[in-house]
Design a protein that fits this description.
mainly alpha; 2 strands; 210 residues; 7 helices; single chain
């Protein structure tokens, strides 16, 4: 006998909270680090992407029914692949940071947005609105990192503190940290917010007998 989605131990709320936790962890690591280099950025992104990919991989079997596994499967695959590339120490350069994070943001943002729109059209509204917003935010991150500031460098000084240089990679890592913080807050709110239970399709007498 098939178990209905309402009887599942885990639901989309748990996926949102798990994603919020790892996004908050990434945001905290960047915020409280004075080193916003490509090495630090890719190290944090690698852990974030791999953990998020694992969440989607588990959600495929624990949360989503067979007909709704395509989107989490794609999101998990793209995130894990991006995380693995970012985890290679020899590749942690400014160019790789921009390339990997931009590609990940544009692909996952588009996948999540399209999947959420399809869910809304199908009447599955529980997490669709949240998916639309997260998809848009992720696309905005990718678009922002496409701006031509990879070679940007601004020298400035602070009286009593010394001279400093603001670089493009510093801005980019900060943007990713800000994105992670916003996503963490939004998903945490969405995960803890009460929601109406979606109606479960009636089971026919033949299905019940089987």
């Amino acid at each position: 006998m098939t178990t209905s989605s309402s009887a599942r131990v885990f639901d989309e709320r748990h996926v949102q909270l798990a994603r919020a936790f790892f996004a908050a962890l990434a945001a905290a690591m960047i915020t409280f680090s004075g080193d916003h280099s490509a090495v630090l950025g890719l190290s944090v992104f690698s852990g974030f992407a791999l953990a998020t990919g694992l969440v989607f991989g588990l959600a495929m079997w624990l949360v989503f029914p067979a007909g709704r596994r395509t989107v989490p499967a794609l999101l998990g695959a793209v995130s894990i692949l991006a995380g693995l590339v970012a985890s290679v120490g020899a590749w942690r350069t400014t160019s790789v940071f921009f390339g990997v994070v931009v590609a990940w943001a544009l692909l996952t943002g588009l996948i999540e947005l399209i999947g959420a729109i399809r869910d809304r059209k199908a009447g599955r509204t529980a997490g669709a609105r949240d998916g639309v917003l997260i998809g848009i935010l992720t696309l905005v991150l990718g678009a922002a990192l496409l701006l031509p500031f990879q070679q940007y460098a601004l020298d400035y000084s602070i009286t009593g503190a010394g001279s400093f240089t603001l670089t493009g990679i510093t801005i980019a890592v900060g943007l990713f940290g800000g994105y992670a913080a916003v996503v963490a807050v939004f998903l945490a709110i969405a995960g803890f917010s009460p929601r109406r239970t979606e109606p479960v399709p009636a089971v026919s007498s033949e299905e019940a007998a089987s």
